[in-house]
Structures are given as C-alpha cells and as structure tokens.
Amino acid sequence: MKDSDPSNIATVSSHFVDDWLTALQSCTSPVQLVSMLKRSGMHTNQGRLVHRVTLDHIVRLYQIAAIETEDEMMGLWSRPIRARALQHLLTTVREATSLPSALYRFSSFWNLLLDDFQFELVDEGGRISLRLLPCTDQPVQRFGHLLILKLAHGLMSWLAGYEVPVVAVQFAFERPAFAADYSVIFPVTASFSAPVSAISFAPEKLGLPGTRSSSELNDFLNRAPRDWIFTSFREHSQSLRVREFLYQSNWENCHLNEAAEMLKVTPRTLIRRLGAEGTSFQEIKDGLRRDIAIRDLQSGRKSIEEISQDVGFSSAANFHRAFRRWTGVTPRSYRHTSP
C-alpha cells in the first residue's frame, strides 16, 4: 500500500546523526545508548549505526532520549535544556502578533538558555536572518545547528499553518559527504563553510500567524520533533519535487522527459538544476527504490522476494547486493532489527 506522503518513506545517511550520537555519549552510558538506539529501531554494530536512518527512527530516538537524558536537546548544547522548556517556547511564540515577532521571541528565549551560542535577528533589507553566533571556540555541533535552525522554521510554519518559504540556510562547517540529506529537512539547498550558521526568510512571505489552541500546542509537543523537522516536501528543492512526482506516478517506467514536463522546464534545464543540487534523475530514482524497499522491510507485510520484484530487481541475489551497498546490512538482518 502506497503512503500518500513521500516524506514518510525518506531516509538519510547514518552519518547524518553521528554528531547527535556523540552528544548522547556525553550524557548516557554506553549500555543506555545502545538500548535507546535499539528501542528506536536503529541497527548498530559496537554502538555505531550501520544502515540508513528513516525519519521515524529520528523521531523515536528523540522522544526516548529527551526523557532519559533529562535534556530536551540531548547533550547538543553545553547546558542541558530541562523538561518543559519547549512547551514554554511554544507558549511564548504563540502570543506573537506577527511571524517576525515570533522569530524575535524565539531568539530571546534561546538567548536565556544557551551559553555557547547566542541568536541574532538581522533585518538585511530584503531578508530577515536568524544567525547563530558562537560565544566560545568550541567545535561546531552539526546536528545541533541543524536541529535548532529547523526548530525556528518548524515553529514559524506551525504558527502560519503552512510551510513558510526559506530564502537561504547556511552552516558554519564544511560541506559533509551527506550534504544531500539536508534537502530532506530544509525547503532550500543548504550552503556550507559560512561565517555563521543562519536561516533567512523573505519578509513579504511572512504572513500573519494563525490562532493556535492549547490542544494544538499539546499535539505539536506530543509529536515532537516530527512536526518541526519534517514540515513538508511541497516547497522543497527541485530534486525532492522530482522524487514526489516519481512516487505519485508509475515511477519505475518514468523518464526524465516526463519529470521535466511536469516541472515545465526542458530536460536539459532539469539536468542542470539537479546537478546543482548534487544529484541526477537516476540517483533520485535509485534513492526512491531504496527507501521503498526499507519501508516494506519494516512493515513486514511482504517477503524479501516480493520486495525485490516490486522495486525492479531481476533476482533476489541482485537485491541483496544492492541493499547491502545501501545500508551495510542484508535485507534479512535489517528486517530482524526493525521495530
């Protein structure tokens, strides 16, 4: 059965969360960390992840770790963020009369809690930027920077009732090998090696916030971090629009020309734009094939042979080789460790 939302089957590299696991090691024991990873459904070898990570994995690990570490940011910052801090943050931004005002409230809130960084809200005359300024010379925590900037975007989108467009997002660390994973999270292509980490919005796109009830606030908190990290694919990068088109179509038989026609561009233009995002039409199809296989293995409703055929492999042996290349483990092993 096909899920109507392609974001529900997206996966990211295990290296995407390496910094998060390093932070968790500082506030948990090795045994506790392995237990948390296992309960979240992640496959490990000597405490390290060995396969791709689904969005559900990330949500489950956050929900487990935030409680067990007694830190709602799970060791990502030098000072623990105690329970109910995020609830107070939502209560604060919910009272804002405009989205720029909500961004100001967001930055002021975190500036009371963070020691190693401070937020600066800057009106650059055409964009409003939320910058994360370092207060120490500590190394940049990549996952921490991603999570807190996406929290700002997620809260703005929650208040607005739609995914707020982003003009730019930049990070104060070198481009990682898994840079393509950032396009799953942010609705714009991320840039790296910037002076500071920041997220920028166009003022004219920041409409009035909606009215959010206490029950809606509680739903947002109970689902955290799903609704702030994974807002939508609708306004995301060209590559994710192609992925969504493939997912909603007969993707195995779709060609580049059909995707270009859907996007109202020439095939050559689409090739160029996908190349600028570090991918290609074939890579997008292969990634979708991989994520569909992972979803079906987790659901347990199909045999490995059926999944192999469904995702277009001529033999189960070829599927096994491809799956091991994708995740580092066999399909049978992956299914055995999935929740």
UniProtKB/TrEMBL annotation:
Is Transport one of the keywords UniProt gives this record?
Answer: no
Its domain of life reads Bacteria
Q: Which InterPro entries match?
A: AraC-type_N, Homeodomain-like_sf, HTH_AraC, Tscrpt_reg_AraC-type_HTH
User: Which intervals hold domain HTH araC/xylS-type?
Assistant: 240-337
Record-linked SMART domains:
HTH_ARAC
Q: Could you list this entry's UniProt keywords, alphabetically sorted.
A: DNA-binding, Transcription, Transcription regulation
Record PANTHER family: HTH-TYPE TRANSCRIPTIONAL REGULATOR GADX (PTHR47894), HTH-TYPE TRANSCRIPTIONAL REGULATOR VQSM (PTHR47894:SF1)
Query: Mind telling me what this protein is named?
Result: AraC family transcriptional regulator ligand-binding domain-containing protein
